[in-house]
Design goal:
The protein is 45% helix and 18% strand. By secondary structure, it is an alpha+beta fold. The longest helix has 44 residues.
Length: 248
Amino acid sequence: MAFTFPSLLILTTFLFTTTFVKTAPVAPGPTAAPLNLTAVLEKGGQYTTLLRLLKETQVGEQITSQLNNSFDGMTLFAPTDNAFNQLKAGTLNTLASQEQVELVLYHVLPRFYSLTTFQTASNPIRTQASGDGGVYTVNVTSTTNQVNVSTGVDNTPVNSVLYSEFPLSVYSVDSVLLPYELFGPKAPTPAPSPSPLPKKKKSPTDSTASAPSTSADNVDNADASSISSRLGLALGVGFVGTVISLLI
């Protein structure tokens, strides 16, 4: 079949266009921005104290790093500024630096929990905090309408959801979660055992006072010996007199 010039031009254009479309590289789509916990809390607008503690303890950087390199995700209970204001005055200042770190980590769970996941979670639930006694835990009870968090020292409901999309959940709470290991009653310190009483040393006065009794004992012994001698002499004289009278 013969091709006219217009037909050849159209065929050549079609083949060139098809080849270009097949070999042209596809532009990559936009990459997802890394999760930023600070941005979530700042958007909430009432977490100034928590943000300060996250920065001072460097827990915020730790959480951000783990979020972007974790397969399990994370969950944060975020106390409001009003929750921190309800604490006894000076509570945070009485904590050592490491204890402040543990307090902040106590609000972090090392996996992603949605509200429905809490309904099937097994208590106690591990937190990111740990101490001499091991990992600190919380108990979470959940119904269809309410989620409550208990520490053994205090209990608080989840007030609202600030963010919940894997790998991060952030829940607002109206009380600071106080770990039992830091704020629970302390065992009484055992009383020290009494020290033995020191032995009483004899004073020179005691030695002097005991001397007259020794002299008195010697006098009594001398008197007894004198009486015995006299009695023996009298008996001897009487016996001799009796013998002489019998001989006469």
